[in-house]
Amino acid sequence: IQLDLDPKTDAYVLALPASLPVRYAAVLTVINALVDFVARFPNPHPLLVVAGQDFGKALGMLLRPQLQQLPLAVIDEVIVRAGDYIDIGTPLFGGSVVPVTVKSLAFPS
């Protein structure tokens, strides 16, 4: 594995694969993997997860008890590729809508 960041100190978003099936068993597998990841790489930043699939609320509700006090946001229906940058805005409508901007190109300053 090659990482351009430090998973114990940097802020980042974990993107679930687009090929992940929308099934309960797959969601449970993701939950176990995320819980293991958080245990291996404790980080002071919130755990941010994006998925192209429409199961963010279910994933978040099932993941929340496993992570206890860790701040968590699971945002669905967001398509990203490796190297994309994501801007996450302030939640709207009581947290049911979150504005997201995906930046696919970055230019050095």
Automatic annotation (TrEMBL):
Pfam families: EutA (PF06277). This is Ethanolamine utilization protein.
